[in-house]
Design a protein that fits this description.
By secondary structure, the protein is of the alpha+beta class. Helices cover about 35% and strands about 25% of the residues. The chain has four helices and twelve strands. Strands 1, 4, 5, 6, 7, 8, 9, 10, 11 and 12 form a ten-stranded antiparallel β-sheet that branches.
């Protein structure tokens, strides 16, 4: 019996040793497996695993009804908007009025029309006036006829001046009145000076009022009875006019 117990105890001791050895081997194998798994694991998996889980934001519910303004509320809003714009319009009007006050309107300049200046052709007195339709006795011819010009007393050689600004239209010789110079002026006015000599102008030349045209000749054949003098005629649009009226002389000297 004692021999059996010793033999049995030896067997158990042997089995216990192997059991412990097996358990240790399994522990070592498991540890190796864990280490190997950690070494071969994907870092991305760990990163993803470490990231927090984010839930998507809640989408606003579009089905919620938007409050609708009543007609009274809309009218009130319009009145408020108009009330706000009225001060701006008032300020703008005040600014415009201020600008008008600051910048006075200048009067429109009126065009000044200068009256024409007429100059006596010679300084002598009138010896035969303009007759118009009235017949005057002509002593040289010994008859009655109209006198469309004005005869001014003058000395032979006295300077004859242009009645007004103008342009010399022509210089001609007349069998009865000698050398004649015609000048055209503004407003269809022309003037003709008869019985000249020593003429100083030519056709087409511009002359000024009072500019010398020539001198008085010794005589005019058509009016030789009057002695040396200047015969001046004027027409407006082809109609004879009185030279004295142009000069503003009402009475014959």
């Amino acid at each position: 019996m004692k021999q059996y117990h010793s033999k049995h105890t030896a067997i158990l001791s042997t089995r216990g040793f192997y059991t412990i050895l097996t358990v240790c081997a399994l522990i070592i194998a498991a540890s190796a497996w864990v280490l190997w798994s950690d070494a071969t694991a994907d870092p991305a998996d760990e990163t993803q695993a470490s990231l927090p889980i984010v839930t998507p934001a809640e989408t606003p519910d579009l089905s919620v009804d938007t409050p609708v303004l009543s007609e009274d509320d809309a009218a009130a809003d319009e009145d408020a908007a108009e009330t706000e714009t009225e001060p701006e319009e008032a300020e703008q009007d005040e600014a415009e009025e201020s600008d008008d006050t600051a910048a006075p309107v200048e009067p429109t300049p009126t065009e000044t029309v200068n009256a024409p200046v007429y100059v006596r052709p010679v300084s002598g007195a009138v010896i035969t006036p303009f007759s118009g339709d009235e017949l005057l006795f002509q002593p040289t011819m010994g008859d009655w006829r109209v006198h469309n010009g004005t005869d001014f007393a003058a000395e032979a050689g006295e300077t004859v001046m242009s009645l007004n600004d103008g342009t010399v239209q022509e210089v001609v010789e007349d069998g009865l009145y000698g050398t004649c110079v015609t000048v055209t002026h503004d407003a269809d006015l022309t003037s003709t000076y008869r019985g000249l000599t020593d003429v100083r102008v030519v056709a087409g030349q511009a002359v000024s009022a009072g500019e010398a045209l020539g001198t008085v000749a010794e005589t005019i054949d058509a009016e030789a009875a009057l002695g040396p003098h200047l015969h001046v005629e004027a027409t407006r649009a082809g109609t004879a006019v009185d030279v004295l009226e142009l000069l503003g002389e009402d009475e014959v000297e």
